[in-house]
Amino acid sequence: MKTTLGRRGIVTLIAVAAIGGAAIAGDRIIVWNGPGGEIAPSPDYEVSVTADGKAWKPFTYHSYNRPVDKLLDPEGRYIKLSFLTTHSNEYKRPEDNRDTYAHSWTHFDFSGGPVEVEVKVKRPLDGLGLPLKSCGIFPSGLGINCRLAGSDTIRFTLAKPAKIAIVPNHLQALERLKAADPKQAFEGYRNPLFLFARAPETGVPDKGAPGTLVLKPGQPRGIDDFARAKVIYFEPGVHDYSKFNPEDSNHYIVLKSGQTAYLAGGSYVYGIFSADRRRPPIAEMALLRGRGTMSGAKQRWGDEPYFTTLEKGVRMEGIQISDPHNHISHSTAPVKDVAVVGAWHGNTDGFTREVPKSEPYDGWHIDDCFVMAADTNLKVGGPARVRNYTVWQLNNAEPLWIREPDGCVVDGLRVIAFNNPASRQTVNISRGSVRNSVFRNFLIEAPFVPLLFLMPVRAEGGGPAYENVLFENVTVTTPHIARKSTFGLEGDANAPIGRVTFRNLIINGSRITSQNCNNYFDFLKGVTVGREIVFE
């Protein structure tokens, strides 16, 4: 332990680990050092956690926007792909974007709260000067209030684990939005801090157990070594498996049924994971878990977004996913307690769970996740089940795409940023039918959105477009909504619409009813309020 003198002369104890990435464990708090190597600490933020008279300093990571729109051929020449051109970022300083251009993030585990968290802004940032004038913590529904302590420091109390965004000068951002045209991210929305506080792990694999392959940084092992192991244990530090399999152009780390890949806290693994067969049953899926970080930063961004995902048929729990090169996941694998950060260019979609009706599941396909995305963040279909999902959305696509659900449940969606001023939608229901599904407990509090619900009905399928569909407890506190939501028959479509019910839809303090709904919705052909669309 190292004794240091605090700002006001109070003696605090800060534990120091001897090696990069190692856990620093107190009675109630576990933090990790950085992985070392090329992973430098954030130049923008520093975080400390205090409980029981002791202070702990988790490593704070950093990620920033950078333009990517080309592939290299084997000779190193650029190949321009039209598909990528429409999804790439402009070649300019990241700070010149109107969007979020960088962010920092940190994580720790704790139990038996509360704990005190201190966030220091280490320097004036582009678009965010010092001294600080306000701060906001989101989702606001968690009820975590922050306070300023000096010109560069934010403090708050965490009573229980939570995944949150800390936005310095939140009120100043809202004030600047009033006159901005077009709308854009301001102040801390351009460079926020994400914090992922979890409950301590249980059932951590024993490194000394038979069948465990322990991987040390800088000592790579091969495909045969991985195949023989029951548990693949990545120790703290940087591991580069981005070129793992020379026979596979995407270089997947393939896991078999019954295998576990464990990313210890402080580990940073360049690599992506796949099951050894297509669409294994959930009960037979391998598991990727831990408190480490999986990064797609060194994978090739190709033109096959639905094929070259970061995960294929592997359950995930408790990890961070940073700088994805493509879509995160298009499988039915359950994902719990995962955070996605550093998604900057198009095709960095979040999670897609289009579940076949033949594969029902009583658990949750996605549970308690925080996802940053620069393309569709969450896509659900069939009997997909999702709860407690937090969205930080860049200027592309939508936070939620609902596509042909039947028996679907989304319970707890929190949209805390959506940096598109006019051309997209928050909830996209623009293709196929919606049946026997419930979408409830939504909080949309991004500073601005283009529109809320896109619900055109087209001439698709033989039955009604909406059948036994409920949106319940949807609260919108977004002060700038560019356009009304749309619902009804599009163009020359004449398909039956059916019925959708909105129960307790509140937009900026107004409960939407049949009397005031025209202020918020554009109704197309074939719609009679109270018949095709009901407000309760």
Report on this model:
- The chain has 536 residues and is mainly β.
- Helices cover 3% and strands 43% of the residues.
- The strands form 7 sheets. It has a 19-stranded mixed sheet that branches. An 8-stranded parallel sheet has the order 29-32-34-36-38-41-44-47, with no helix packed on it.
- The N and C termini lie far apart (59 Å).
- What's the oligomerization state? single chain
Q: Which parts are unreliable, with pLDDT below 50 for 5 consecutive residues or more?
A: 1-19, 80-85
**Gap from first CA to last CA:** 59 Å
Structural class: mainly beta
Mean pLDDT rating: 90
Rg (CA only): 23 Å
Number of helices: 3
Q: Helix amount, in percent?
A: under 10%
The profile of the biggest β sheet is: 19 strands, mixed
Q: Strand portion, in percent?
A: 35-45%
Protein traits:
536 residues, mainly beta, 19-stranded mixed sheet, eight-stranded parallel sheet, 3 helices, globular, disordered N terminus
Secondary-structure blueprint of this entry?
Blueprint: E1 2-5, E2 11-14, E3 23-25, E4 29-32, E5 45-51, E6 54-56, E7 60-64, E8 70-72, E9 78-80, H1 82-85, E10 102-110, E11 115-121, E12 135-138, E13 146-148, E14 153-158, E15 162-168, H2 170-177, E16 193-198, E17 212-215, H3 223-228, E18 231-234, E19 237-240, E20 252-255, E21 260-263, E22 267-270, E23 272-275, E24 286-290, E25 293-295, E26 311-312, E27 314-317, E28 320-322, E29 329-330, E30 335-336, E31 339-341, E32 351-354, E33 366-373, E34 378-382, E35 385-393, E36 400-405, E37 409-418, E38 427-428, E39 434-444, E40 448-449, E41 453-457, E42 466-476, E43 480-481, E44 485-489, E45 498-507, E46 510-511, E47 521-523, E48 533-535
Parallel strand pairs: 2-6, 10-16, 17-18, 18-21, 19-22, 20-23, 21-24, 22-25, 23-26, 24-27, 25-28, 27-30, 28-31, 29-32, 30-33, 31-33, 32-34, 33-35, 34-36, 35-37, 36-38, 37-39, 38-41, 39-42, 40-43, 41-44, 42-45, 44-47, 45-48
Antiparallel strand pairs: 1-2, 3-4, 4-10, 5-6, 5-11, 7-10, 8-9, 11-14, 12-15, 13-14, 15-16, 45-46
